[in-house]
Write the structure tokens for this entry.
Amino acid sequence: MLFLDHVFYAVGGFQLSDVTLRVVPGEYFVLLGPPGAGKSILMECACGLRRVHAGRIFIDQVNVTGQEPRTRGIGYVPQDYALFPHRTVRGNIEFGLIPQGLRRRESAGRVNAVADVLGIGHLLPRQVGGLSGGERQRVAIARALVVQPKVLLLDEPVSALDESTRRVVCGELRALHDRLRLTTIHISHNQQEAFSVADRAGILFDGNLAQVGTLGDLLRKPCDDQVAQFMCCENILTGYATTQDGEHGGSCIESGNLSVKTRHLCRGDVRFLVRPEDVQVTPAEVLEEVPNAVTRGRLRQIQDYGAYCRVVVEGEPALVAYVSPALLAQHGLRPGSDVWAVIHPDAVQMLPAGQSISKTKSDGQDSVLEMIQRRPCSLEDIVDGLGMHRNEVIKYVEELAANGLLEKRSSGGSLFYSGKHRPEETQR
Amino acid sequence: MSGFVQGARPVGGMTGYAMRTTFQVLCLVFVGFVVLLLVGDALYVDGRAVQTVLTAPYVRSALWMSTWTSLVTVAISLAFAVPTGYVLSRCRFPGRSCVDAVVDLPIVFPPLVAGLTLLVFFTQTGVGRWIENAGFRFVFQPKGIVLCQFLIAASYAVRGAKVGFDGVDRRLEHVGLTLGHSEWSVFRRVTLPLARNGIIAGAIMTWARAFGTFGPLLIFVGSFRGRTEVLSTTIFLEQSVGRLDVALVIALLLIGIALVALVGIRLLDQRATTGY
């Protein structure tokens, strides 16, 4: 287990600000972020290669903040692998066993065992100079694993590999993790890479940990614009929400010609997002009945990425959609074609109150209160219903409880919140 | 076979061809100039002068003195150069640029000034006189030869070591630290072996400079035959008494020894680096 507790570190004009991160035992965690976000610096702090200026670092419940790197028990695989060029593959792998003072036979046995796990037994006598990228990576991982670390840290382990090798190696990394169940942190700037290996992920921007969660959460419930954009969501829209009990039991959001009845409860000016893969494009003449959440527009741009096409539907609002090349070919769609862009109501995700144009802290509190006044809700119900970030909801719930506007009730092992009316509302 | 093969020449246009040809011609002119001078020297000497040099006991004595003093100088220089080079390469501290400049200062010392400085220090200053009186005599002593050579040549060793350490990827050291090694262990097992080429290059330069040192020796230790005489001072003494042919034979001997040593060390180093 690795726990970074309010870590602060500054170098030059860059700083890691109050980073708190808990990676649970046996988890495969991916730390995402654009280049220059501070991912490697954060992990070097965890390794002890940089002394943090504030905060604490725990590995398996032990505070290692002041400890030297050699005693922390982190197996570190840096970017480009950093193999020792003056040692053979065997010499590289057994390097970590030298301080342990093992007998030659025992040391050789451990090197052979880890080499067999990674399928590099035949490479042991070779110099590292002639190895391929994939072989170098395996040797670097073997070198880190042979010392039996508590945490394995992989800094962009597949960034130097070509696309097809990258997919294969990511599969192998995940399989290796499933076999060893070693707590693993994998640094990457590629979300597809993260999807192929991670249990959970965190996104770092400019030294700030923006969001931590499952990849589904990062993809569908980003905490802000930055995370949404990093997760390739190009449709970040503004609109006006009116609360009404409609077909979907939530608010209706108007944005240009688009009208969406969502499951979310919100009101006033709002910002919401729709993932491009959730936007369906249909030729104008095909759609006989105009359903909920649809806008008409003209195809402005088609970019073919092989497996899918990115199209821009120029309407009000403009929407980006990922569609299959077969669909475009089937309907003969080309730039200038009139189309409908259809959005499923479940695909609409609200951006948290803090990100909304006019939503203030009291708006957020009001939304939570309004929801729990209707019916008792669990924390998850509120998060899902309002599309807010979990931490934000917890904050509002605590504030409402402190003001005596919220009651907590336990039922079926879950905690439910129900709302009371404000004193002025009661008087009215 | 894909990739850039060492020694292979890429397809080049006329500009590249002209550039390479010009550089090759200039290189040839420089090497030719040096070789021409040596050939001129070799043609000037005769068999009698060669026989004199090969049989004279004072020449053998000077050769031995040159050899052991220069080797001791290299050893002492490396003892200081490796830590100093490491500090200059790895550590950031106030005044680092000044320290870096001071390390290079002896390279630009006029040789006579170096000798004069040492002489003044050991004869005119309190600290110098105390060292001399404490039994560590350098002035007009063989030990002084080593001190002179060290002052003149150690900077090359420091510079070579620094270049060597600069070339070692810090991430290799970081990996070593996370693999359970102490900083000293990482230095010994990773940094030092990888900086070896730079250190060896510095050592070669130091030895070559020390072997040929002349000016400061004449001032600081004099040129007492059989006591503080090295090959370079022998050349001076021989030419000062008009035996130019003997001086030239000794000079060629000195150059020959230096050439064999330099080529030999480079070949050994190349073999150790490439494995063949």
